[in-house]
């Protein structure tokens, strides 16, 4: 489990980059929190620096879009999905439960 920070420090429409085995981007979409691998699968660019469009993020480098729920790209230039991760809030603190595979996995302690 990776501590992201206080929920109040991640307002709607914002994102933050945290470090796990790889960098992870955490997004607040109208109060719903999502986490995906921070590096675009097309080329080395930080998705936390991208633009939120509904429940997707647009890569700032070549405009590839990734669904924050599934990690799937919406089309070229990205062809490979990124990993998704479970996000939880406990006592006002945001945590990421890092997944080991694309598609994400819900850790047993979160279920």
UniProtKB/TrEMBL annotation:
Spans traversing the lipid bilayer: none
Location of the Rieske domain: 2-96
Pfam families: Rieske (PF00355)
The keyword Metal-binding is annotated on this UniProt entry: yes
Gene3D superfamilies noted in UniProt: Rieske [2Fe-2S] iron-sulphur domain (2.102.10.10)
Record-linked InterPro entries: Rieske_2Fe-2S, Rieske_2Fe-2S_sf
This protein's UniProt keywords: 2Fe-2S, Dioxygenase, Iron, Iron-sulfur, Metal-binding, Oxidoreductase
GO molecular function list: 2 iron, 2 sulfur cluster binding; dioxygenase activity; metal ion binding; monooxygenase activity; oxidoreductase activity, acting on paired donors, with incorporation or reduction of molecular oxygen
Protein name (Swiss-Prot/TrEMBL): Bifunctional 3-phenylpropionate/cinnamic acid dioxygenase ferredoxin subunit
Species name: Saccharopolyspora rhizosphaerae
